[in-house]
Amino acid sequence: MKYDLFPAIASQESCQELAQQYNKLDCLDEPSLKCFREAYVIAKMSGSQPVLITGDNGCGKTGYAQLMWGVNSIRTKRNRSKEMLNVNCSAFSENLIASELFGHKRGAFSGAESNREGKIKAAGEKGCLFLDEIGDLPLSAQALLLRFFQDNEIQPLGTDEPIKLQDPPKVICATNKDLRKEINEGRFREDLFNRINKFHVHVPPLRIRPKDCLQNANNFLDKFKEMQADSSEVVAEQLTKMKIDSNFYNDNAKSGYSWPGNFRELENRIYRAAVTKITCGGTCIKFSDLFDESFIDSPDRVNTETQDFDLPKGPVLLPFDLEAKLDEIRANFIDKAIAQCNGEKTKAAKLLGYSNYQKMDRRRSKA
């Protein structure tokens, strides 16, 4: 892609400056730099059209949504004073998600004691709506959402006539699911997918972003220090001296750790390591400090010695569902193997002795 029309993202330095300006994103590695450029260009060119952001859990999809809303609102002169409204589609039941998005009339269902405006209308007047985990949206709500995208119309629950929105919001969708697979298995509408997938950004996982990993380790440590601003003088002095070890980058690269939880996992591990250092009087956080020995993952083997399966202590009270416990243990091993193989099920199946990953999936589904 050429950037003659977008000189602001021609260099890595300018990209990083813009990323910090909008949402303190980091794009030091080539995959994240490419992602930022795509997000910036799409935000400039997508106008009021929906955008789909994909990527693993915890890899920064919300941050990119905020970036794109910031850039898009300037380009299209949309209402920058309006906050981006967030709706997590996986957090509501089938009935409640429809009410959350489209609103309802008093008496529409049990518990609907008053009229309620839905998030789509609330985000209107040239605002922005962020639909997180759209892959978990029930099929009934998908049909209503498709009507909104096609006709700019919403119909609150319990009403007879649709409402035409004159200034519909910009909609940014995100998911960690493979929507094409969801379509093939009948869980997601293909026509809705085609509506939201006109502009697509994929956020790369942390495991292929070692420079971003180091930068965010420092960022999370700084954030932890700010959180402890009211600590005692002794702790405050120790935190002032605390830093990330200079070999963190190399040790991370050598470990081959897959970071299945991405940035959320990194943040949690940095916080725990900082607390441990405060306890023992240390000031330098090494990469190895982020892990208990049982959590150091090798890409080629599954650690079977340190797993805690919460087996019954003492005498077993009968009757006891042994098969269910064995299924639970089997599922634990399978999940661990898949994580250590970076999601490559064929490789994970081979490690666990299955002839193919389909057989492994069938055994996993019994848990």
Commentary on this structure:
This protein folds into 3 domains: 7-204, P-loop containing nucleotide triphosphate hydrolases (Rossmann fold); 207-295, Helicase, Ruva Protein, domain 3 (Orthogonal Bundle), CATH 1.10.8.60; 322-365. Helix 2 runs parallel beside helix 3 (61-75) and helix 9 crosses helix 11. It has 15 helices and 11 strands. The strands form 4 sheets. Strands 2-5-8-1-9 form a 5-stranded parallel β-sheet. It has a two-stranded antiparallel ribbon with strand order 3-4. The protein has helices at residues 12-23, 30-45, 61-75, 94-102, 119-122, 139-151, 179-184, 190-196, 210-227, 233-241, 248-255, 262-280, 322-340, 345-351, 357-365; strands at 51-54, 84-88, 103-104, 116-117, 128-132, 153-154, 163-164, 170-175, 200-202, 243-244, 284-285. Residues 1-5, 293-309 and 311-316 have low confidence and may be disordered.
Offer a few descriptive terms.
15 helices; alpha/beta; globular; five-stranded parallel β-sheet; single chain; 367 residues; 47% helix
Largest beta sheet, briefly?
A: 5 strands, parallel
How many helices?
15
List how many beta strands DSSP finds: 11
Q: What is the name of the CATH superfamily of the largest domain?
A: P-loop containing nucleotide triphosphate hydrolases
- Following the backbone from N to C, one meets helices and strands in this order, namely HHEHEHEEHEHEEEHHEHHEHHEHHH
Considering DSSP H and I runs of 4 or more, what fraction of the residues is helical? 40-55%
CATH topology descriptor of the largest domain: Rossmann fold
Rg (C-alpha, Å):
24 Å
What's the shape? globular
Lateral arrangement of strands in the main beta sheet: 2-5-8-1-9
Rounded mean pLDDT score:
83
Protein name: Sigma-54 interacting transcriptional regulator
InterPro entries: AAA+_ATPase (IPR003593), AAA_lid_NorR (IPR058031), P-loop_NTPase (IPR027417), Sigma_54_int (IPR002078)
Keywords: ATP-binding, Nucleotide-binding
GO molecular function: ATP binding
